[in-house]
Design a protein that fits this description.
Elements: H1 11-17, E1 21-27, E2 33-38, E3 43-48, E4 51-60, E5 63-67, E6 74-82, E7 85-90, E8 98-104
């Protein structure tokens, strides 16, 4: 992304973008979209079909880090603004597989 001239969001932009929002993550390889609601208290709720999978999230060194909803492991992402669509690039990955849009609030009603 940096090679394309995109800069990662700074801490202030990340803090304005993520908490108390539903982020609709789309995998660029499969085209599948997953809503994830990020609560300000560090909990997040991933909707897969009709199932909701709770886990944790946090900011660290300019990254958004997510505990895997499948259990235990942590993935941290650099977030880039790509002309309105946000890109979430996993640290250490060879490609940037996720794009997302953000909607204010718990749009899907999954963060209970």
């Amino acid at each position: 992304m940096i090679a394309r001239g995109l800069k990662p969001l700074d801490d202030a932009a990340l803090r304005a973008l993520v908490p108390e929002k539903t982020l609709y993550h789309t995998n660029t390889s499969t085209g599948q979209t997953y809503p994830i609601y990020y609560r300000e208290d560090g909990r997040r709720f991933l909707k897969v079909g009709t199932n909701v999978r709770p886990s944790r999230w946090w900011f660290k060194d300019g990254l958004r880090c997510d505990e895997s909803a499948a259990g235990g492991s942590t993935i941290c992402f650099k977030i880039f603004d790509d002309g309105g669509a946000m890109r979430a690039c996993a640290v250490g990955a060879k490609s940037c597989e996720w794009i997302f849009t953000a909607e204010k609030g718990d749009v899907e009603g999954i963060g209970k």
